[in-house]
Write a structure and sequence with these properties.
This protein is α/β, with parallel strands linked by helices and about 230 residues long. Helices cover about 50% and strands about 15% of the residues.
């Protein structure tokens, strides 16, 4: 199925809050693959741009800044941490404000160009599960297996609301759902690499599925695909 050195490339795309990060981590763990959270990389870039006070309308300054970005995904005690310019920003990038800021900055060509190059470098040898919004359409359109994970805006908002309240943040369910809808609109209407399902991606609606059910479906499809081609990956 794949001539890549370490296995196949699995692309996992979908809107914000569909559960991609958790599913990607468990799928990667189950297959012995590496998880690449491209959304976290864009969040880290947005944070650094904001902290540096970069004027995003100044293309020369933005290009120069993005070319020097140092964003890494590192494992610490079995958990993936996001390290940007030497600092662990894993928690800082997971706020509602960063979600909206990321949607805006990720639409900027200098940001996408810089991270696209890094993402392709990380995944080119295979044996990876890349999650994001344009993996199967832009980053690796030749990925051997593509999933598109979706859920209703209400369900994604509910999940996000529970996540934030568990962290002690003061948010409302209605406001969280509204933010999810706003993020969907930004992601799907942007000119550069808008959110869309690849034609050859397998869609899975997780609105009424447990995490285990989603993972079971993906694992079954993976084994069906690899076994049907005689692959030992």
């Amino acid at each position: 199925m794949s001539a890549r050195k370490n296995g196949i490339i699995i692309a996992l795309d979908g809107p914000s809050g569909a559960g991609k990060s958790t599913v990607a981590r468990l799928l990667a763990d189950g297959l012995g693959y590496m998880q690449i959270d491209t959304g976290a990389m864009y969040r880290a870039a947005a944070l650094l741009i904001s902290q540096a006070g970069i004027d995003v309308t100044d293309q020369l300054a933005l290009v120069a800044f993005c070319n020097e970005l140092d964003i890494r995904l590192e494992l610490h005690n079995g958990r993936q941490r996001v390290v940007a310019n030497g600092a662990d920003v894993t928690e800082l990038i997971r706020t509602p404000e960063m979600s909206l800021l990321t949607s805006r900055t990720s639409a900027l060509k200098p940001v996408r160009d810089a991270l696209l190059k890094l993402q392709r470098l990380l995944g080119s040898q295979g044996g990876v599960v890349l999650e994001g919004r344009d993996i199967g359409t832009v980053v690796f359109p030749d990925a051997e297996l593509k999933f598109y994970l979706i859920a209703s805006a209400e369900e994604r908002g509910r999940r996000r609301y529970q996540e934030l309240t568990l962290k002690g943040e003061q948010v409302s369910l209605e406001g969280t759902i509204a933010e999810v809808i706003a993020r969907d609109q930004q992601d799907s209407e942007r000119d550069l690499a808008p959110l869309r399902q690849a034609e050859d991606a397998i869609a899975i609606d997780s609105s009424h599925l447990t995490l285990e059910e989603v993972l079971t479906r993906m694992m079954a499809i993976f084994h069906q695909r690899t076994e049907s081609t005689g692959s030992t990956l």
